[in-house]
Known about the structure:
Elements: E1 2-7, E2 10-15, E3 18-21, H1 25-57
Antiparallel strand pairs: 1-2, 2-3
Amino acid sequence: MTHISKNEKNYFIEWKGKWFHKEASKELELLNSLTKLSDKISDLQEKISKLDTRMKNSNITT
Length: 62
């Protein structure tokens, strides 16, 4: 989750506990999207691993 704060004349954005200047907002949006994508990939890898284990335990081959 991001937070926006006005500090004197500059705007800053907080992302994951760190503050960045407003000009970095597009990079932060991209980083946030990549983080979400990475999380989804990790979830899929875990599901694939569980399925692979189940298949091996059932003597099913692909």
